[in-house]
């Protein structure tokens, strides 16, 4: 009888244990972590932390009337799109402002500018000397063979090649004078050198004004 009373008393004084699933514990900790990342103002309203905006680089924009404005690339593109214009870069980086320079152009202006750029590029490539050509002449050469070599020299000079000529033999000076005379209308003579019975000189295409 005493033993049964003791067992009932022990069961009566036991406290109930509230078991919670592990998922509820993880969710509670996650919510607490997120709450710590929020800022609460004086009135108790919750505000999220906003990332700082990165400033957009600006360009110098030239209008149709050469008016100058400083805007972002996005604004300039939208302006041209609304007005049906082309946005063309004319300077990569301006030394004074350290900004790229763009210009608004109509379709006709853009085509003229593009054509002019191609024309200037072609003229620059045409006026720039190309790979060197070498001509060896012996003083025993016949007149017909000499004329054939001179014709080749004319062709190379017309294609903007530099021509290096080496003449050997007792009459090297006379042959050199004759070659120079035959090509004087289409060449410039530079660096004529004489050593023994050898004469060397270089023919360049004429300069164009």
Automatic annotation (TrEMBL):
One Gene Ontology molecular-function label? translation initiation factor activity
Keyword annotations: Initiation factor, Protein biosynthesis
User: Sorted alphabetically, which Gene3D superfamilies does this protein's record hold?
Assistant: Translation initiation factor 3 (IF-3), C-terminal domain
Q: Which family does it belong to?
A: Belongs to the IF-3 family.
The protein, known as? Translation initiation factor IF-3
Give the record's GO biological process terms: mitochondrial translational initiation; ribosome disassembly
Q: Which PANTHER family match?
A: TRANSLATION INITIATION FACTOR IF-3, TRANSLATION INITIATION FACTOR IF-3, MITOCHONDRIAL
Secretion signal, residue range per the UniProt entry: none
Q: Which GO terms describe its cellular component?
A: mitochondrion
């Amino acid at each position: 009888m005493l033993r049964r009373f003791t067992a009932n008393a022990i069961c009566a004084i036991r406290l109930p244990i509230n078991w919670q699933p592990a998922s509820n514990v993880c969710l509670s900790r996650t919510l607490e972590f997120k709450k710590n990342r929020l800022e609460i103002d004086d009135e108790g309203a919750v505000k999220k932390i906003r990332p700082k905006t990165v400033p957009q680089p600006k360009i110098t924009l030239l209008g149709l009337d050469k008016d100058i404005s400083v805007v972002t690339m996005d604004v300039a593109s939208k302006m041209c799109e609304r007005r049906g214009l082309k946005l063309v870069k004319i300077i990569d980086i301006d030394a004074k402002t350290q900004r790229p320079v763009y210009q608004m152009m109509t379709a006709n202006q853009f085509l003229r500018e593009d054509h002019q750029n191609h024309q200037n590029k072609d003229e620059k490539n045409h006026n720039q000397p190309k790979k060197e050509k070498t001509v060896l002449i012996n003083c025993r050469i016949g007149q017909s063979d000499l004329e054939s070599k001179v014709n080749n020299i004319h062709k190379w000079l017309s294609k903007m090649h530099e021509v290096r000529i080496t003449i050997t033999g007792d009459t090297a000076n006379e042959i050199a004078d004759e070659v120079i005379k035959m090509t004087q209308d289409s060449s410039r003579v530079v660096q004529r050198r004489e050593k023994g019975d050898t004469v060397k000189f270089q023919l360049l295409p004429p300069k164009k004004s």
